[in-house]
Design goal:
Elements (H helix, E strand, L loop, with lengths): L2 H7 L11 H17 L5 E4 L6 E4 L1
Antiparallel strand pairs: 1-2
InterPro entries: TBL (IPR029962), TBL_C (IPR026057)
Family: Belongs to the PC-esterase family. TBL subfamily.
GO molecular function: O-acetyltransferase activity
């Protein structure tokens, strides 16, 4: 998994996971992989109900 390539392809775009707890687990896993691959990047995490968001700044 090339996280930097993934982030560059999604630059300026939004991505949404819709579904049940399985979708939430997939979102959490993707966010963990992205933040681990680019540890020096600035991020903004907003935890909400029912939606949370992670933005790479």
């Amino acid at each position: 998994f090339d996280a930097t390539k993934f982030l560059s392809q999604l630059r300026g775009k939004k991505m949404m996971f819709v579904g049940d707890s399985l979708g939430r687990n997939q979102w959490t896993s993707l966010m963990c992989m992205l933040t681990a691959a680019v540890p020096s990047s600035r991020t903004r995490f907003v935890k909400g109900q029912p939606m949370s968001s992670l933005t790479f700044l």
